[in-house]
Amino acid sequence: MTIASGNGRRADEVVKKRINARLSAVDSLVSDTSREQVIAMLIAVARAAHALADGTCDDSVLGAMTVDPGDFDDLSKALDALETLPEPGPNIYGTGPAKAEAFLSR
Question: How far apart are CA 88 and CA 61, in angstroms?
Fold first, then answer.
């Protein structure tokens, strides 16, 4: 179905232009980020996760795990950095790890 927009262009042409504009925006974001940067971000997550796991203590009396707040904050910051990566595509939204995976799969 084709619907004319107010300025005489067909609605599907307007939609195509919007999609192409979004793709261009994503491409420009991707070109500003290198594979090495994404790999470095993932290494930071791995290092922070290792430190957190290595420093976690099992408290059998309380039935809980004790985590160092600094290690937790470091992991949280490393994961937050992944959130700054561009979305995988127009109208496709992902978590930080999913964004890194999509970026490295290109």
Answer: 45
